[in-house]
Amino acid sequence: MNKPDFTTLVDAHSAELFAYLFRLTRDEAEAQDCLQEAYLRAHRAYGRLDDRANTRAWLYRIATNTAFSHLRRRRREAAWSAPADERWPADDPSPPERAARRAQLAALAAAVERLPARQQAALVLRQYQGLSYAETAAALACSEAAARANVYQALKKLREVFRDAAQDEI
Amino acid sequence: MPPKTRFDLALDQLLAAPRPEAVARAQTALRRRLQAEQPPAVWYDLVPDTPVGPLWVAVSEAGLAAIHYGADARAWLAALRRRGFGAARRSAEKTARWRADVAAYLLGRKRSLPARVDWRGVTNFQRRVLEAAAHIPRGHVQTYQGLARELGRPQAARAVGQALRRNPVPIVLPCHRVVAADGDLRGYLGQHGVQTKAWLLHLEGARL
Question: Is B25 assigned a catalytic role?
Answer without folding.
Answer: no
